[in-house]
Amino acid sequence: MASWYEGPLAAFDTETTGVDVETDRIVSAAVVIQDAPGTRPRVTRWLVNPGVPVPEAATAVHGLTEEHLQRNGRWPSPVMQEIAEELAEQAVAGRPLVVMNAPFDLTILDRELRRHRASSLDHWFETSPLLVLDPRVLDKHLDRYRKGRRTLTDLCAHYGVTLDGAHDAGADALAALDVVRAVGRRFAARLERLSPAELHTLQAVWHAAQARGLQAWFARSGTEEAVDPAWPLRPDLPAAA
């Protein structure tokens, strides 16, 4: 039987108005499905008119202007419903979902569902759990002493993955999926006997340990920044708007 990293995988990515999961909005998203390495991926994309200003700094990252989104994007409510349905389909099908920096993308989706659908991400996975594979968490645990940054661009370079069109949701999702396959192959001796469900549970532990390490480093360097240990979804804050 093929190992999980050689089998069917899905991936999810978003582009947003900023980096605050509580207040920023999704402007584009994509889900990529690939049945096996080297097979043609199936990509579903969404473009969203968030109904709020899009900062120039965000546009500089992903290239989506407020005018373009107003003219071509759809209203958030039906889009968030469709994204949640698509992710739920992956869970029912048993496909692990690759999400680079999962606490960001999944949490901002959760907040959009709460904002526009009076729902939550957990609601969609009450019967079939979502099994997440986060390339950043996996890489940082398996190769913890490697120096340097671990952005998607950095991981692609390290694992020999092509990233065409960084900060395009579809391109980023596919690249993250390819990185996870590469991580699986490189560390096969440590990963191939673990199921996606076991890996999901372990990543929550690994991410929490990584967060504690980063928090300690911040404390030593005098940086007043809190690091959330939750993975893959941050708890809801009552003040979210």
TrEMBL record:
* One MF annotation (Gene Ontology) recorded for this entry: nucleic acid binding
- Tell me which Pfam families the record gives: RNase_T (PF00929)
- Matching InterPro entries: Ribonucl_H, RNaseH-like_sf, RNaseH_sf
UniProt cross-references to Gene3D superfamilies, sorted A to Z: Ribonuclease H-like superfamily/Ribonuclease H (3.30.420.10)
Q: Which residues form the Exonuclease domain?
A: 8-189
Q: Per UniProt, which keywords does this protein have?
A: Exonuclease, Hydrolase, Nuclease
**What superkingdom does the record give?**
Bacteria
The record's annotation in SMART domains points to: EXOIII
Q: What is this protein called?
A: 3'-5' exonuclease
Q: Which organism is it from?
A: Streptomyces cupreus
From the broadest rank down, the organism's phylogenetic lineage runs: Bacteria, Bacillati, Actinomycetota, Actinomycetes, Kitasatosporales
